[in-house]
Design a protein that fits this description.
By secondary structure, the protein is α/β, with parallel strands linked by helices. It has helices spanning about 5-25, 45-55, 70-75, 90-100, 120-130, 155, 160-165, 180-185, 195-200, 210-220, 250-260, 270-280, 290-295, 310-320, 325-335, 345-355, 360-375, and strands at about 35-40, 60-65, 75-80, 85-90, 105-110, 130-135, 135, 140-150, 170, 230-235, 240-245, 280, 285-290.
Length: about 375
């Protein structure tokens, strides 16, 4: 996957979560509306791709840059009118409200949020998480997405407080995620809708790879991996710039995102987003949760067992979905029932392909020795 696909899928899932939350709120139920934070280097195309995605969806976009604003620019100004105080809303809010009248969904894009000074963070905090400007609510159908600077820029420019970080789902983008050949060769303005769908990775597969219930069960069994704490700024060029930390709020956000993502896409990008949002593992000496999730990916893959388990059907299943514990148990049963009469050379060839795919797996080595004994 590339940056354009990471961002496209991130925004697509955020939007789906936000729309469902909006529907619940309209029906009188409580729901969390999770904003997204994209951390990347200045000039890496975040704004371009957010606008591309929004235009592709038919949404309005309003961009604000609070690092260049005063408090009044964010929250408005109380003035005396007609013998009383009235709130004069800032121009960006008026534009957002005006755009919302056309019936389209809105995207409020908060750029350079990582450089926002401490004085501006309280009103910005309320705008993002209470979704109000002073006492005036944002249009209901508004998705909030923010972007900030990455890695080498963070030491001097990163000013977000831990409470602010702790209310976002986080996507880190690194230089390695950018396909510069694609940037040079693609004429984005000339793309068709189908080409944009493909460019942003929005095509949904017919079958789904991951099982949310398996992931959630794994999470509950491994709570010691996660710790409350503070946001971590890392200079790991492969990891990205910002790791969050566990709190009830972001755990809820992370689980909502994982479930929504697994219902739409098959790529492992969800582990980057969920992992970076939750931060680091206390149990594993500060190892990023992203890495912990990736190391346990096989535990989250859907159990898709063939109707009749054979060496061939299991080979096909393992090659598509990975070497899960369930597949190993099924393989053990097949080996246990193998005899010279019911095991063909082709069966042995299928088993050999599995071993070659996972050459250092101790369970497979044991099963191989067991099969040799059974056929001797």
């Amino acid at each position: 996957m590339k940056m354009n696909e990471y961002m496209g899928q991130f925004l697509e899932v955020l939007d789906e979560m936000d729309r469902k939350a909006e529907e619940k709120i309209k029906s009188g139920k409580k729901a969390r509306r999770a904003p997204g934070l994209i951390i990347g280097a200045p000039g890496d195309g975040k704004t371009t791709e957010i606008n591309m995605w929004a235009e592709h969806k038919g949404y309005n976009v309003t961009t604000i840059t609070p690092s260049n604003y005063t408090i009044d620019d964010i929250s408005g100004l109380d003035v005396m009118l007609n013998g009383g105080l009235e709130r004069m809303t800032p121009s960006w809010f008026n534009k957002l409200a005006e755009k919302a009248k056309n019936g389209k969904r809105n995207v409020l894009f908060i750029d350079e949020i990582s450089a926002t000074n401490d004085l501006l963070q309280p009103p910005l905090f309320r705008l993002i998480f209470d979704r109000v400007l002073a006492t005036i609510p944002l249009p209901e159908n508004t998705l909030i997405v923010a972007a900030g600077n990455l890695s080498e820029d963070l030491n001097n420019a990163f000013r977000m407080t831990a409470p602010l970080v702790n209310r976002f789902l986080i996507l880190n983008i690194t230089n390695d995620d950018i396909d510069y050949r694609e940037v040079v060769e693609n004429e984005i303005d000339d793309m068709t809708d189908d080409e944009i769908t493909q460019f942003l990775g929005l095509d949904e597969p017919s079958s789904k790879k991951y099982d949310f219930n398996r992931f959630y069960g794994w999470y509950l069994d491994n709570l010691s991996e996660f710790r409350p704490g503070k946001a971590v700024i890392t200079d790991d060029s492969e990891m990205g710039g910002l790791l969050g930390f566990r709190s009830p709020r972001v755990v809820k956000y992370a689980m909502m995102f994982a479930e929504a993502y697994m219902s739409k896409f098959n790529d492992p990008i969800w582990m980057r987003i969920v992992g970076d949002t939750l931060g680091v593992s206390d149990k594993r000496e500060g190892q990023p949760i992203r890495n912990v999730l990736m190391a346990n990916e096989s535990e989250f893959i859907k159990k898709v067992q063939p109707q009749v388990a054979t060496f061939k059907s299991l080979r096909d299943n393992i090659f598509e979905y990975g070497l899960t514990n369930d597949n190993l148990k099924m393989l053990d049963k097949i080996v246990e029932g193998s005899t010279i009469r019911n095991t063909t050379n082709q069966d042995l060839s299928y088993f050999s392909e599995i071993i070659k795919r996972y050459p250092n797996n101790e369970t497979l080595e044991y099963l191989n020795r067991k099969l040799i004994r059974k056929l001797s």
